Amino acid sequence: MQKYLTIYHELVKKIQSNQWPESTKLPSENELTEIYSTSRETIRKALNQLAQDGYIQKIRGKGSVVIDTNKFDFPVSGIVSFKELATNLQLPANTIVNELAIVEADQELQSKLNINLRDSVWKVVRARKISGEKVILDKDYFNKDYVPELTREICEDSIYDYLENQLELKISFARKEIVVEEPSEEDRALLDLEGYSNVVVIKSMVYLEDTSLFQYTESRHRPDKFRFVDFARRENNKS
C-alpha cells in the first residue's frame, strides 16, 4: 500500500473513533510530516483524500478541520422543494427573500429558458437557513408565461406548493448539472461562508408534464452541510 494511503487510514481511524471529533483542527502539514517521517507531498495526498471522502474541510488560513460526517442528504435525482427538504430533516429552517423582481431576459437566460431576448422573467433570490445558519442560496428564474404572479409571502413559504396547488401546474422532470465553484461576492454576502473556499452548485432546468421549460435555477450550497445522493439501478442489458 502506498504510504499516503496508510497515513490516510490512520487519520480516518482517529476521526471515526472520535479521537478527533467534529471541529477539531488537524496538525499542520509540517507537524504531520514530522509525525509520520515522510514528505510534505505525501501528507498532502493523504489530506486531499480525506477532503475528497468528506472527513475534513480545508479552510483557507485555518488549515484542515474535521467536519460532521452526518451531513444532510440532498436528493439529486428528485425534484424537492426546500420546504419539503426541511420537513424531512426535522430541523428548524426558514427562508429569507433577498430579491423578488421581474427582469428582462438577457442572452444567458434566453438560452437557459428557451425564450426570446428581453422577455419578462421572474427572478427570485432566497437564502435558506437551517439550524440558524444560511447554508443554501437559491437563485430561481421563472418564465412569466407560466408563472404570471409571485409574492414575497409565496416565496417565503413554497413556490412549488403555490404552482402545483394554486396554479395547478404539473411539474414533471428536470435536467441537472452539479459543479463546484469559488464563492461569488453575492454568495459571501448572503451565506455564512467565512473560511470556506468553494460552494457546490446544482443548476437545473425544470419542465412541466407537457415538456414545457418553465424554470431555471441555481442552488448554491455550503460544502460542509450536504451529501448529494442518488439511487441508481443497473439495467439488464443483454448483448
UniProtKB/TrEMBL annotation:
UniProt-listed CDD domains: WHTH_GntR
Pfam families named among the record's database cross-references: GntR (PF00392), UTRA (PF07702)
Domain of life per record: Bacteria
Keyword field contains ATP-binding: no
Gene Ontology annotations of biological process type: negative regulation of DNA-templated transcription
InterPro entries: Bact_HTH_transcr_reg, Chorismate_lyase_/UTRA_dom_sf, TreR, Tscrpt_reg_HTH_GntR, UTRA, WH-like_DNA-bd_sf, WH_DNA-bd_sf
Keywords noted in UniProt: DNA-binding, Repressor, Transcription, Transcription regulation
GO molecular function, one term: DNA-binding transcription factor activity
Nucleotide-binding listed as a keyword: no
Residues annotated as domain HTH gntR-type: 1-69
Protein name: Trehalose operon repressor
Organism: Virgibacillus salinus
Lineage per the UniProt record: Bacteria, Bacillati, Bacillota, Bacilli, Bacillales
